[in-house]
Amino acid sequence: MTEKRIYLVGNPNCGKSTLFNQLTGLKQKTGNFSGVTVEKREGIFRTNGLDYTITDLPGTYGLGGVAEDKKIAYEVLLSRKPDEQVIYVLDALNLERGLQFLLQIIDMGIPTLVVLTMKDVLEKKRIQLDLEKLKKQIGLQFLLVNAKSGEGVETLKESITNPNQFQNCTRLWTWGTKEESFLKSAKQKLGIDSNEAEFFLSQSLKYLNEDPHFSEERYYLKFPEETKNWLRSQVIGKGFFFYYQEEMIHRSIFIKKVLAEAVTYPKSIPGSLDEKLDKVLLHPILGFICFFLLMGLLFQSLFSFAELPMDLIELGIGQIQSFTESFVSEGLLRSLLIEGIIGGVGSVVVFVPQIALLFLFIGILEESGYLARASFLMDRVMGKFGLSGKSFIPLLSSAACAVPAILGTRTIENKSDRFTTIMVSPLVMCSARYPVYILIVGTVFSFPPVFGIFNIQGFVLFSMFFLGMIVSFGFAYLFRKTVFKEDSSYFVMELPRYNLPSLKSLFHTVYGKVKSFLSTAGQIILYISVLLWFLSHFPAEYKNNQWETSPIETSYIGTIGKVMEPAIEPLGFDWKIGISILTSFAAREVMVSTLAVLYGSEENEESENLRSTLRTEKRADGSLVWTPLSGLSLLVFFAFASQCMSTLAVTKKETGTIFWPAVQFLYMTVLAIASSFLIFQLGKILGFS
Amino acid sequence: MTIQDLKIGQIAEIVSLDSKKLSKPMLTELLELGFFPGAEITLKNKSPLLGKMVCVLSGTTIALRIGDGESIQIKIKSI
């Protein structure tokens, strides 16, 4: 069976992903492009005994960008094998911009088939498109498809199997007269006749002209020394306009000419629904009201809808554990399996419903076109802290988990903005902090409701969320003013048309995100929880044909806890809390289970049992360990400390060095220790306990 | 004049982008979204409270900060 590779290329919001899902169905896998973490979606499409691997390249507007996802699209196309082809997805309502990128693809000499999407909208808006004229002018095959309903997809599938449908044409647009005549003579002198070689030549010319956008040396370096010298002597100082900007202008002239012939717009465009919606949603007051209502609804449902599946998963994990118990005889292996492996992995799996829900909501907001409007509203606020509205989306998703949030910063073109967002995302209260906060708040703030209605515990939780947001904004400002000073923030964003999200593509997004969350976060937690299991059960002795493990007090981790106790005493913590802080370095929620093990009671943040044990815990001098003051200090510690291996791992991947995760870990830890110390010591001076 | 001076509904043609004032990533992004000399631009909405303006360029709606607009020179085409 032979296999062929086809790349799906196009602008963002052009319906590329929906088409990808239509073509490949469930035969998809996600991974990364080699060397970078930009998500790579691949699917198999099988027909007539032939396998076609379809790769969905990140949507970009052109090949000149520096954002990770743009760069990768460019690199992949550049290093493609000669027989690999491109399906170019063209949004019928954004023809001008889409054609601009298509012409760049043509210039690279890639065999291409064009698919026009948004057929339904085209009809609704009464825009007439003359496909035959387009085909003739561009010289490629054009197919009309409705990616959402699947109309035209069958024809597309047939076309894919026909190699004649993928055509290769020569550059369609022309440079200015001076540049064009030079190109002609240079091509003759150097014997250049293919599209691809001409692409290399024009890239070299832009390099020699020191184009601010496309001055890459590599094309130039491909030419022999003699040619390089000749090119230098011919180009430098001769006043040629070989620039990316110039290229785009000339392409645009060509595109305008084509469109004038092929497209007829209706005489008048009536006040559309889009405009009415924007009047409300982008309104400085009404817009914010809608925004906060939506966010409130989002968080409310996040926690209420996720509760049942989370309980079910916990129940299931318990079942698996007791099932294992009945099969494996008591001893080290059983303890490793049940506590180390199943328990450890289970602590991650339990967050899947919340993460799936969050991505479902974000998916709906994004596909409907609202997310761009939310960024629009938030930009002013973010701007005050040196960020742009684009950083708002990752910070919002941090409220579920910083890992996917950091992955989501890839769409931010401005590197300083992107790195700042990565550095401060983990300060936002994530779902892993919830179990910890609920345990602490429930233990130390067990007061009756104020005025009979205001629940102080709910208030504390809300304040913690607010605290996380404020501090992350504050640190964003600090990072922007000190380390990431270059390229002040800006905001340019397309406001896409409002759209009804497609169920199929939502399902695929959520499925893909959950899968990648489980594989990145899950693996690390597995290793760490096995290590923690070892540290909390060893040293062990082999006696009477079985292993006798140490109780936690005398285990390695217990010893470490005792050693570190003097260091954490000024923060108001005892050695048991110290250990739980150590174990929760891997993942915050581990704190609850550690305390449960230490106090030998049932493991559950809701359990009254563990709380009442904690409330009576005393120090050597007889004073209580868990007081409102030490509880507050612990809350603040967990709000700021960098206790998440997965976040650090993903920061390393996304920034490409070990340096930034190290900085992230250090600044967050120092902040946590300093704030806890201040709160506890000041509180003591003021006479609180 | 710059796009800051446009009134709502006015159609203009972009004359130049000030590459000294604009940062490189922003300039690239603007170009690829269609902001280049010769392109036709319409101001759709302006919201000083949010510091934003919304323009339409060849059928696409694009939002940007009013402050950044001073780097985009235009000439009015019609009213």
From TrEMBL, chain A:
Which molecular function terms from Gene Ontology are attached?
Answer: ferrous iron transmembrane transporter activity; GTP binding; metal ion binding
Q: How does it sit in the membrane?
A: Multi-pass membrane protein
For this record, the Gene Ontology CC terms, alphabetical, are: plasma membrane
Keywords assigned by UniProt, alphabetized:
Cell membrane, GTP-binding, Ion transport, Iron, Iron transport, Magnesium, Membrane, Metal-binding, Nucleotide-binding, Transmembrane, Transmembrane helix, Transport
Domain (FeoB-type G): residue spans on this chain = 3-166
Q: Where in the cell does this protein reside?
A: Cell inner membrane; Cell membrane
Question: What name does UniProt use for this protein?
Answer: Ferrous iron transport protein B
Give the organism the record lists.
Leptospira noumeaensis
The gene from which this protein is expressed is: feoB
TrEMBL record, chain B:
Q: What is this protein called?
A: Ferrous iron transport protein A
Pfam families with a match to the protein in the record:
FeoA
Q: Per its UniProt record, what InterPro entries does this chain match?
A: Fe-transptr_FeoA-like, FeoA_core_dom, Transcriptional_repressor_C
Give the UniProt keywords, A-Z.
Iron
What residue stretches are annotated with the Ferrous iron transporter FeoA-like domain? 1-76
Give GO terms: molecular function aspect only.
Answer: transition metal ion binding
Question: What is the native source organism of this protein?
Answer: Leptospira noumeaensis
Q: Which domain of life is it from?
A: Bacteria
SUPFAM superfamilies this protein is in? C-terminal domain of transcriptional repressors
